[in-house]
Amino acid sequence: MKSRKNFKKWPLTLLPERWLQIWQSGTRSMCAWMIDSFGNEEQRHKFCPPLCTMEKFASYCLTEPGSGSDAASLLTSAKKQGDHYILNGSKAFISGAGESDIYVVMCRTGGPGPKGISCIVVEKGTPGLSFGKKEKKVGWNSQPTRAVIFEDCAVPVANRIGSEGQGFLIAVRGLNGGRINIASCSLGAAHASVILTRDHLNVRKQFGEPLASNQYLQFTLADMATRLVAARLMVRNAAVALQEERKDAVALCSMAKLFATDECFAICNQALQMHGGYGYLKDYAVQQYVRDSRVHQILEAPFSNLSLCWNRLEGMGAQIAGLNPRASAPEGLVWAWEFVSATSLQVRLPQLV
Fold first, then answer.
1. How far is CA 239 from the centre of its chain?
2. How confident is the model over 223-241, as pLDDT tens digits?
3. C-alpha triplet 96, 101, 102: angle, nearest 5°
4. The pLDDT value given to residue 173
5. Which residues 6+ apart lie within 8 Å of 99 measured at CB?
6. Of the residues 135, 263, 300, 314, which is catalytic?
7. What are φ and ψ of residue 59, in 5° steps?
8. pTM score, two decimals?
């Protein structure tokens, strides 16, 4: 795998190789998928090859200072003037900003709401494109996070991916794979934490015996490993559904992201606890897994906060009493209710890989 010169200065030594590969390829592959799936032949030939070989990196630009989960309310504008779009606005919390070569930007070319959003590729070095300061984060310090700023940034109309008004669809479909990516990063952190904890328990002695001989710690480690395997199966289940383009893919990707990021952070946190005071030292990698995996519960949040859906419903008693949850439920709430209400006989079970 090729690496960028600018990336060499980042503290990567504490990251497992597989986790690093997932992170480096995640956003890049999501952007490449968008261009490959919705772009024309010329756009695919121009942007995809260098992204696939990692000669270039891409950043996905959706979130804004005033629009996070409510992505349809984004304000970055793209006004058409001749054969160019003039972009004005800013994006926040953009992974790789300032280092990436390509920025896949969701911007407003039409009226309010999702139908007014389009997808435009902005290349680094375009006049009017600038970046904010590098954010100081609790974790994820192996990649830069900055604001992306557009000030009368002129981009050729030829760089628009898909048709005008198709941007929100592209963004939402891309997020399905993004949730699998984030969940997979959590799996990597949790897996490494379990291995480190096992080794620590075998080496560390208390009261003349290794900690591994303590039955309570044995049970705790077994519980951590069980939850890790359960999360991994759920992520793979969602990945199969997404690859097969099944109707339940959106729900499964959201559920897998929600479950895996919560469970894996808990595993990492428990691993730190089992390291005792050593776990709080930066000489031990487990503390970095705790810091890095915490943000996974925040990233790719749209449609993933399913607990909000459950809280808004009046419980299963509503169904028993004959109440209609569709009456005032938002669209996301309806599919969540339908998914949970379906019996196992009505939902085709996927093959786990």
1. 14
2. 999 999 999 999 999 999 9
3. 90
4. 86
5. 4, 6, 7, 57, 143, 144
6. 300
7. -120, 140
8. 0.77
Q: In which residue are the tokens 């031990």 written?
A: 284
Question: What DSSP line would sit under 118-175, residue for residue?
Answer: EEEEEETT-TTEEE-PPP--SS-TTS-EEEEEEEEEEEEGGGEESSTT-HHHHHHHHH
Rounded-to-integer distance, Cα 189 and Cα 187, Å: 6
Spatial CA neighbour of 87 closest among 32, 130, 40: 130
Phi, psi of 113 (to 5 degrees): 90, 175
Query: How many CB atoms neighbour CB 283 within 10 A?
Result: 7
Q: How far from 67 is each of 63, 90, 93, 121, 255, CA to CA, in Å?
A: 6, 11, 11, 20, 23
Residue 300 known to be catalytic? yes
DSSP string across 318-343? HHHTT--TTTT--HHHHHHHHHHHS-
- Extract the tokens encoding 141: 């310090």
- Between CA 56 and CA 67 the distance in angstroms is 28
CA distances from residue 95 to 34, 91, 179, 241 in whole angstroms, order as listed = 17, 11, 15, 27
Buried b (16+ CB within 10 A) or exposed e, 24-55: bbbbbbbbbbbbbebbeeebeebbbebbeeee
CB 253 within 8 A of CB 242: yes
On the question of pLDDT at 335 being above 70, the answer is: no
CB 187 within 8 A of CB 231: yes
Question: Per the structure block, which two tokens stand in for 64?
Answer: 């804004």
Q: Would you say 143 and 10 are in contact if contact means Cβ atoms under 8 Å apart? A: yes
